[in-house]
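Bumping my old thread because nobody answered last time. Still need a sequence for this structure:
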């Protein structure tokens, strides 16, 4: 199935402490597809994700060249243009990290927090969006009667789904996930895999993973990062 292009990366190079990490990357990502990025540890996979949301910009002695264009409202925007504020970008491009990182507050407040940062004040609207985000993250039924409890009381798998729900509450168009199941047991990881496949209806997903069997189950496309650039990788599809 042919999809429209959502992200265009052109001549992207990245250095850290004068060490080249990414070298002249030219790649496009299709809308409503799940692209997996694989490769050895320390080769720059997480760094590449950070170039798509500008999270690297406060890293000492880091430097990037090239451009990243993302289609919003039918038009490509250069996300490094000075007229594009990083907070707006990060509402549209959500990020989930390797280790679950619930905030030290209740389950409900964890999900509501991004909405309040975005200036939302209508309590009914916030409550509705919190419930919908938890439903999309396959977590609502498990926590609907304990929303006031500390989020750290959740299991590891539940905490990771909470973090996904926290990203989804702002209805991002792109979701970046860096090794989202690496700290989970196989049962919890399977739930996350099912969740990620379901999100393609509303999001474009880019997932860093070390697990080739997982990649073969969930990905529409696989890119292997090697020597600073991507190589298209074919895997048996077990979906």
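Sorry it took so long. Here it is:
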């Amino acid at each position: 199935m042919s999809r429209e292009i959502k992200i265009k990366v052109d001549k992207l190079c990245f250095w850290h402490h004068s060490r080249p990490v990414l070298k002249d990357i030219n790649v496009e990502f299709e809308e409503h597809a799940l692209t997996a990025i694989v490769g050895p540890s320390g080769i720059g996979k997480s760094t590449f994700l950070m170039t798509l949301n500008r999270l690297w910009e406060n890293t000492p002695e880091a430097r990037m060249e090239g451009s990243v264009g993302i289609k919003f409202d039918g038009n490509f925007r250069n996300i490094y243009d000075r007229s594009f504020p990083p907070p707006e970008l990060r509402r549209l491009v959500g990020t989930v990290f390797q280790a679950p990182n619930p905030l030290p507050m209740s389950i409900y407040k964890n999900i509501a927090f991004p909405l309040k940062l975005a200036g939302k004040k209508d309590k009914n609207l916030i409550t509705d969006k919190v419930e919908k985000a938890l439903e999309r993250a396959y977590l609502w039924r498990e926590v609907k009667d304990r929303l006031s409890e500390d989020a750290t009381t959740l299991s590891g798998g539940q905490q990771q789904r909470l973090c996904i729900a926290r990203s989804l509450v702002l209805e991002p168009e792109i979701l970046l996930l860096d090794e989202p199941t690496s700290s989970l047991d196989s049962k919890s990881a399977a739930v996350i895999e099912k969740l990620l496949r379901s999100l393609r209806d509303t999001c474009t997903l880019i997932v860093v993973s070390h697990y080739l069997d997982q990649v073969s189950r969930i990905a529409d496309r696989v890119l292997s990062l090697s020597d600073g650039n991507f190589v298209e990788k074919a895997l048996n599809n077990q979906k």
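The radius of gyration is 18 Å. Let me know if any region looks off to you.
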